[in-house]
Amino acid sequence: MAKAEHNNVTLGMVRDSLIRQEDTIVYSLIERARFPLNPPTYDPSYASIPGFSGSLLEFFVKQTEAVQAKAGRYDNPEEHPFFPDNLPPSLVPHYKYPEVLHPAAMSININKLIWDMYFNKLLPSFVSPGDDENYALTAARDLECLQAISRRIHYGKLVAEVKFRDERKDYEPAIRAQDRFTLTNLLTFTNVEEAVKKRVAKKAMTFGQEVKLGDDGDKGKYKVDPAIVSGLYADWVIPLTKEVEIDYLLRRLN
Ligand SMILES: O=C(O)C(=O)C[C@]1(C(=O)O)C=C[C@@H](O)C=C1
């Protein structure tokens, strides 16, 4: 969402942004699926980088996040690093982002959970097994997937803020009672969730089809299985977005 739009943000605008972010997530999965699993990317004993203990992936993510932190990426409240400890400060002029969220939002970062889900559950389900030795590109594509998924899930903070402002009298008692169950019911729109799952599967079909001239191409063959993309949303993206919404709301009156 553009910076200026934050002041009068509506649920419709927030949902439009979530819809646009679906494109980024689906494309990033398609790009990662160009490479097989490439296990050495994740193997600390393969990397043996002087002065660094960890996998090539960790090295790549930490170094990239350090550069991006210096360039101001994490000044933006929509961005969350995977390795927040010891990040260098921003070196660029500070843009004063409109303060839309409650300050407690700063303390919410569930990237550890997202990292574990991505590498343990999601990745093995949509890439082919094997090794083509493109480890640096593999790490770069993984980070793009992680960042896109993380941005979407942490957008739950803004979704929750807008819902809170729209229905303050319903949310306040549940927040005071720290009642997760009622908060979950208040913020859940089953029809919206069903539409999201269907739409991302359709995007995976549309963006991931082989485009050929002259014949019908490989009908029904997709670069990433649409069922895996809708499963990612059903099992992880939507539940974790709701988790962020609840974590945020529980702190909203602090
Ligand atoms: O659109 C909303 O209202 C959201 O809170 C986002 C979202 C989602 O993750 O897509 C999560 C919970 C709602 O039940 C519907 C959809």
UniProtKB/TrEMBL annotation:
Gene3D superfamilies: Chorismate mutase, AroQ class superfamily, eukaryotic. SUPFAM superfamilies: Chorismate mutase II. Pathway: Metabolic intermediate biosynthesis; prephenate biosynthesis; prephenate from chorismate: step 1/1. This is Chorismate mutase. Its EC number is 5.4.99.5. It is found in: Cytoplasm. It catalyses: chorismate = prephenate. Residues 139-245 form the Chorismate mutase domain. The keyword Ligase does not apply. Its main location: cytoplasm. It is an enzyme of class 5 (isomerase). One of its GO terms (cellular component) is cytoplasm. GO terms for molecular function: chorismate mutase activity; protein homodimerization activity. One of its GO terms (biological process) is amino acid biosynthetic process. Keywords: Amino-acid biosynthesis, Aromatic amino acid biosynthesis, Cytoplasm, Isomerase.
